[in-house]
Specification:
The structure is a homodimer. The first copy, chain A, is α/β, with parallel strands linked by helices and about 325 residues long. Chain A has 14 helices and ten strands.
Chain lengths: ~325, ~325
Amino acid sequence: MKQVNVLGIDGGGTKTEAVLMDENYQILGSGKSGPSNYQSVGIEVAKNSIQTAISQAVTNSNSHQPISGICLGLAGVGRPEDFPVVENLLQEIITNIPIKRALQPNTIIICSDSNIALVGGIGYSIGIVAMAGTGSQVFGQNSQGLTKRVGGWGYLLGDEGSGYNIAIKGLQAALKSYDGRESPTTLITDFQRHLGLTNIEGIVEVVYRRGWGATEIAALAPIVSVAADKGDKVAKKIIQGAVKELSIATKIVISTLFQPHESFEVVTIGSVWNSMIDFRGRFEDSILAIAPTARVIWPRHQPVYGAGILALKAVKVKS
Amino acid sequence: MKQVNVLGIDGGGTKTEAVLMDENYQILGSGKSGPSNYQSVGIEVAKNSIQTAISQAVTNSNSHQPISGICLGLAGVGRPEDFPVVENLLQEIITNIPIKRALQPNTIIICSDSNIALVGGIGYSIGIVAMAGTGSQVFGQNSQGLTKRVGGWGYLLGDEGSGYNIAIKGLQAALKSYDGRESPTTLITDFQRHLGLTNIEGIVEVVYRRGWGATEIAALAPIVSVAADKGDKVAKKIIQGAVKELSIATKIVISTLFQPHESFEVVTIGSVWNSMIDFRGRFEDSILAIAPTARVIWPRHQPVYGAGILALKAVKVKS
């Protein structure tokens, strides 16, 4: 294959990353900027973030090859209505930036964040990604190209097993216990101490009046994990429930996409997997119990690298 | 008792009501205006709403008696820090309005919305109010003046058994079922049809991107109730769970405040009690099973009337 340069972009709710990659999957340059989840930050902010990240990646590379392919993985993109919006956005951006382009049709790929996370995490498109950070979802693809997603409905409608879910269940349990509706739990004093409150009732002020969002609440998940590790039964039940939810979601993706004796990998991505004590091991046990041919792995590469791989794949199909 | 006029005010998240009441608990005039939950709408809006409602009540009354007492029940007021804020607010308002005043110390009462709901609903201060509208809480007071509150932590942290809780559990169950993680349920098509969606995935757009709040989500609760009534097992479980949560909360208030053979009333207030099918009857059965001396009643008066009663009581103690 002749010399080829492609762009991989990972657009998220808090940051946007871009890499310029060559035909040997080598990163020539990378860039980083602000959020580009256009549904929450708006089209203009998203455009600026993506443009900045791309410009940085190209400038840092010292490469003068034209860009032959682009893959943009964007959080929240999934419905058919999203694609034309994002495609227009991307077209405008690449027209704005003074870069050489040799883009054939079908070498601009727009997909969801779970798609590039799967490809980056495993190194290719087949397998399962179990994402559990602030939110959660499990996404997979098999060798026939069939995909299945479970979860990812956001903090109000789902995200079972996520950091947000663990934290909010911890807070709810602490308040129920304070009311006398739940067994005693150290979570009451744990949250109080962590948040510098004189009384757990102050949590109302913190959550509603300081304008806390899902991210801030999710950051309290490790408190539940530590309490569970110290033997608090209420906290233990929450942590075990989260492992169970992620296992159930993963098992549905497995049974939808893979045959009983097929080998495949499940990559775990997100802060929950390494910040919760005695969590990932239980998940792994639960998965291997029903799918002994599965391998639970840590991510091999970042999602932005997965976007680069997908862009390169599109160009190779063309060439 | 000589001729006395007092003001009762019910300040909520969507509206503010005021009544001018005489010494015989007769309403001489009433007023209604916008929201006055100062934590969400801000001090200025709250001040305007309360001022407008009071002015209307006084103007409509044709009474020229001075105001001898005021009771303001405000949603979300409960913590010690709230009282000086609201007291200042109320002082400013009554100075602004050209009304005759004969206010003795301790004849200005500031309390929570549950307090005036209890007094309005039952007619006096002793008993229990089980509130279940968009949110939920159970509050009670006994003859010794001891109070107990369970719940009322808001839509994210609690509000079990509320309209919001029933609706969000219905949506979560529908999406879990769609994912293959929950038994089949008619809730998927029920929500789709109600919201005019071609696919249940469109619920993400509705809930997150249209800026829906707890009130809009809570308005979907009757869909879960209707599905349960038609025999949908998933919906039934949610409705039964809500009844159970409200029963548990009420039982804790009962056991904290009342002796086993003491007679008292439990007043049910809020849209959930009359919009859910086969709901209040189950709640009543559950309460009577553990407290046969309790009587579950519908509210005798509005909360704003309860505020009037409390204002009058304060004046009578003084006179």
